Structures are given as structure tokens and as C-alpha cells.
Amino acid sequence: MPRSITSRLWLWLFIVALGLAFLIGLNSWGPLESSEARYAEIGREMLTGQDWLHPRLLGIQHFHKPPLTYWLTAAGLALANHSALGARLLPVLAVLLQVYLVYAVGLLLFAGDRARALGAAVIYGTLPVVLISALNVTTDAYLATLELAAAYGILRYYHDGRRWALYLFWVGLGLAFLTKGPVGFVLPLMAVIGFYFKREQARRPFTWHHAVGIGLFVLVGLSWYIYLVIENPVFVRYFLYEHTVERFANAATFHRSKPWWFYLVLAPATSLPWSAALITQAVRTPWATVPQQWRNVFIFWVVVPMVFFSLSSSKLLLYVLPVFPGVALLTAYYLGRCTDGVLHRWYSGFGILYGLILAALCVLPLLAIDGKFPLEITPFTAIWPAAGVVLIVATLVLWDEVRMAPRLLMLPALFTVVLLLSAKPILRQNELLFNGSRPLAELLQERRLTQRPVLIYNELLPSLAFATGRLPVSLYDGNDALARETQFEPTNAWRQNLLNLRDAQQEPTLDSLLRQRPVLLVKGDLPNHRKSLLRYTQYQRKAGKWTLYW
């Protein structure tokens, strides 16, 4: 970067620009099914019901994850008035904190070289998978932040013996455990192993600070679990077996089965173009010339976690998010070994790729004119990518920097900002296509149906509950997503929110509901043997994949 501006200032400029790009238009579309809507709605119900220990989804207790994500979602909703912005606010801040932590870890691994640490932070902040995690309300952005904080804490403690860093490690580990359970140990454990493996590092003695740190971990990470087990001993098996062993070994339990090579393909694909640079330069670099420290980062921060998650039967892309700080650091290391000539070739390749993407975004409105294109895109949607092309060209032409490394970092940073701003109008205009429900809520309001009961046939739709602020009644007819865990309910009050159409004993309750002239939402076509649900309806309206009857 220009020598008149420090690397730390460039870091903060990048974080601020990235943060603004995330926040602008963040409320343009509502939470999307299924994971984001589920976490957002649980946070809303927690804030509304003020029960912070028993998460609820559509009125029924839901213990699939520990409560930290729900607490943070509720906090964001309280700050931003129960909006989609509030649900997404803290994940965005978590990702920005990750960018800073990658810089901080980079300072340790690059022996105080701020320029290379900055490079790692920019690489991390421009990875597509990281951008995806920031725009989704899930546990993964929080887990990656806390694991990275714990890893930084222990590395900093090993580096200079700072006691606060040791406490950061244990508290971060406890909060990670309170976010997603034992999987929160993976990255911090790999950081510890990688620090010592074949490096003959002097071991720091066990002191009373370690004992206090372990106590903090137990207090922070295990207190909620202990409370629930005391309240109901059934939770011992539930947490240890069904949500640890079963989730890892049996993907059918949560319908997330993917082939063993899922991450081997998707992880590089969602970190392009940096993954192409990393893989190419790593293959070209003799392994014997790589210092042991960076071999350990490659093995323990990338390879071992990838193998671990690939062995699991349950797979989603963001499960491997903690791997990508290692990817960013390794990319900065390998590119830091390159000559300006090599960097120029990568710079040119990045420029061509980004130019093609922005050109495609500019052309999309033309493709949507005839109505055959699957997306609805107005002509004004092309403003952001067109302005981005002008901005990038002007910056790189007028900037008098001759070194290739700063240019190679500036280009993806500018492109990422433009991409984030360009994507949000597309999400807003196609919310129903992307499994959002805000347009359905707006249709209910437009038709003055907001005070009627809402029945949803054979689908779990928390996004509609979030958009309307009211709980619908789900009509179960064989969809496994509605096979809720009601064994923890102390009363039968949950039956007000979930009716089993296959249970003849619930027919009187259903008939009573239908007599109240509810709104019935059906995704796709209503089966012929369920046409009786329409016996009191007069009107219908199509909205994307949904049909509303009232």
C-alpha cells in the first residue's frame, strides 16, 4: 500500500468499507428459509416471550443448538426494532471482527509484518463464503468468530505470555461451546497442536491462571447444559447422543446428507479466485522449502479440519467456515513468495474474472425483459455494477502505485464492495423465489387479512411468523420438517400451533379453525384428498410458489 498510509489504517479503511457495503440495504429482504428464518424467528420469540433458557420455534421448544445464537439474534432485534436488519446486524459485526482477528493472527505468524497480515485480512474479507456467512443468520458466523478469538488468544499467550490472552482463549472456547457444542473445539485445538508440532517450542508451565481459565470455560460453556439436565435428565442423552453422535454419524437425522467429496469441491469453489492462486502456488512451491510453521498451518488449520468435517455424514457449506482463516493466511504466505511478474499475472486474471461478473450483472436486466428468465430484475438493478466498473477502472488507472501486491489487494476489495451492493436489489426483487415470506406478509396486509388465523399446509414457515409477528398454525400431513420434538413440552398448549391432519381426533379442532375464516397457504398444489380444507374459502391468489386461500 502507499507508504504514506500505514497498514493498520488501510485495515480500518477496508473494514469500514466492507461494513458499509454489508449494512446498506441489509433490511431489503426478509429472512430466508430454512436456517436463517429459523434462527431469526427463535430470536424473535425469545425476545417476545422473555424465556432465555428454553428456545422456541413457532411456539414449540427447540433445542437443536445451544442458546448463544438466539440470544445474540434477540439482542439485534431489540436494537433494530424486530427487523431483518436486526437479525443480521450481529452476524455482520461478527464477520468484521473475524477480519480483524485474521490480521491479529497474521501479525503473530508473519513475525510482525503488518503488510502481510493486512494481505491475509483482505483476502479473508473478500472470500465469497465469508460474505455468504455474513448475510445469513446462523450459528456459523458466531462460531467462526469465537473459535478464531480463542485461537488468537492461545497463540498470543504462547507468543508473549499475556495473561489476558489466556483468559480470552478459555472464555472464547466456552462461548464457542455455548454456540454449537463440541465442534467449537476444532480450530483452537488445531492451533495448539500446530504451534508445537515438530517446532520444539518451549512449553509454558501450568499456573493458577490456567485453573481459573478452565473454571471460566465450565461456567460459560456448560452452565446452560447443566441447568437443563437438572431440570430434565433426558437432556443427557439428547445432547450427548442425538445432537453429537447422531448428527455426526447419521445425516438422515437432520436431512443433510452429502457425499464425502462435498467440501473438497465446494470449499475451493466458494473461495475463488483466491483458492485458485493458493492451490497453484502451493503446487509450484517445493514442500521442503516451506517453513515448519506454515506446513503446520496447512496441515492443522486446513487439511485436518476438512477431513474431520468430510467424515461427518451431516454437511452444510458453512460448517467449514473456521477453515478459511487458515486458507487466507496460507494464500498471503504463498503469494508473498511470488515475484511482481507472477503477481501481475494473477492481477490480470482477477481483473478479467471480475469484469465478466460485473458485465453479467449489467446484462441481467436485459435478459429479464421477455419474462422467460427465472429472475425478476428491473433496469435500475444495473446501476450498482455499472458504477462499480467505473469506480474500479478509475481507481486502478489513476492510482500511481507501481507495486503489484497492493493492486492485487485493492482490486478484490473494490469488487467485493460493489458485489455486495449489487446483490441486494436482486434478493429484494426475488424474495419469494429465494424462499422468503415478506411478500406473503405484505399480501396479507394488502388484503386486510392480518387479523385472521393463518394456516400453513404441510410446511414449516418461520419466515412468515417473523414477517407478521404472529404464530401461524402448521398443518402436518407427512412432511418431516413438521415432525417437531414435543417431548419437552410441559402441557398440550403446543397443539394450538401444530395440527396433525392424519389424526382423526384433531378433526373437531381443525373444523373450529376453518369456521373462523382463516387464510390457508399452500405451497404447490393441494392434494385432492385435502380439498375439504377449502370448504369455507371464497378467494385465492397466487404468489410465487404459494397459493393463498381465504
From TrEMBL:
<keyword id="KW-1133">Transmembrane helix</keyword>
<keyword id="KW-0328">Glycosyltransferase</keyword>
<keyword id="KW-1003">Cell membrane</keyword>
<dbReference type="GO" id="GO:0016763">
    <property type="term" value="F:pentosyltransferase activity"/>
</dbReference>
<feature type="transmembrane region" description="Helical">
    <location>
        <begin position="260"/>
        <end position="282"/>
    </location>
</feature>
<protein>
    <submittedName>
        <fullName>Glycosyltransferase family 39 protein</fullName>
    </submittedName>
</protein>
<feature type="transmembrane region" description="Helical">
    <location>
        <begin position="294"/>
        <end position="311"/>
    </location>
</feature>
<dbReference type="GO" id="GO:0009103">
    <property type="term" value="P:lipopolysaccharide biosynthetic process"/>
</dbReference>
<feature type="transmembrane region" description="Helical">
    <location>
        <begin position="165"/>
        <end position="196"/>
    </location>
</feature>
<dbReference type="InterPro" id="IPR038731">
    <property type="entry name" value="RgtA/B/C-like"/>
</dbReference>
<dbReference type="GO" id="GO:0010041">
    <property type="term" value="P:response to iron(III) ion"/>
</dbReference>
<keyword id="KW-0808">Transferase</keyword>
<feature type="transmembrane region" description="Helical">
    <location>
        <begin position="405"/>
        <end position="423"/>
    </location>
</feature>
<keyword id="KW-0472">Membrane</keyword>
<feature type="transmembrane region" description="Helical">
    <location>
        <begin position="9"/>
        <end position="29"/>
    </location>
</feature>
<keyword id="KW-0812">Transmembrane</keyword>
<feature type="transmembrane region" description="Helical">
    <location>
        <begin position="89"/>
        <end position="110"/>
    </location>
</feature>
<dbReference type="GO" id="GO:0005886">
    <property type="term" value="C:plasma membrane"/>
</dbReference>
<dbReference type="Pfam" id="PF13231">
    <property type="entry name" value="PMT_2"/>
</dbReference>
<feature type="transmembrane region" description="Helical">
    <location>
        <begin position="316"/>
        <end position="335"/>
    </location>
</feature>
<feature type="transmembrane region" description="Helical">
    <location>
        <begin position="347"/>
        <end position="368"/>
    </location>
</feature>
<feature type="transmembrane region" description="Helical">
    <location>
        <begin position="380"/>
        <end position="399"/>
    </location>
</feature>
<feature type="transmembrane region" description="Helical">
    <location>
        <begin position="208"/>
        <end position="230"/>
    </location>
</feature>
<feature type="domain" description="Glycosyltransferase RgtA/B/C/D-like">
    <location>
        <begin position="64"/>
        <end position="224"/>
    </location>
</feature>
<feature type="transmembrane region" description="Helical">
    <location>
        <begin position="117"/>
        <end position="135"/>
    </location>
</feature>
<dbReference type="InterPro" id="IPR050297">
    <property type="entry name" value="LipidA_mod_glycosyltrf_83"/>
</dbReference>
